[in-house]
Amino acid sequence: MKTKKQHKNIFKDHLLNFKQIKMKKIIVLAAVLFTSFSALFAQDENLVKGTWINSDKDVKVEIYKSGDKYFGKIVWASNLYEADGNTLRKDTKNSNESLKNRTLLNMVILTGYSYDDGEWTGGEIYDPKSGKTYKSKMKFSGKNLEIRGYVGIFSKTTTWTKA
After folding, report:
1. pTM, whole model, 2 decimals?
2. Which is it for strands 132-141 and 59-66: parallel, antiparallel or unpaired?
3. N or C: which end of the chain has fewer CB within 10 A?
């Protein structure tokens, strides 16, 4: 028969073993949670990728990543063709003569955005309706994408929805 002291030592050993197992489980759980949150935040910057419809609902833009920058090109528009129905419309409003002959379809209108803390900054947006380019940044507002263009101290925000 075991003595009281032996029972106490066995209990201490089991308790110590239980604490070690519990600590290992906590460490593993913490590592899994850290990895999951890291992956979740790493994906945030790519949530902007995909096809978006502008606020006027007359243009769809595909946002994609090339290298470490984000860009967007026109993939559909309600008025892509001239009156003949066959000829693609050109960038006629562009102030740069050498660019006036390019077609609107697949025209890159968002250029050079970098992801930083929940926003895509340092980019430019080109407006083929006016032929003007604006410095801009993008961020999410709920499920929508807000794009803010700047001219000096003035700015305008447009809201795009996922196509």
Report:
1. 0.73
2. unpaired
3. N
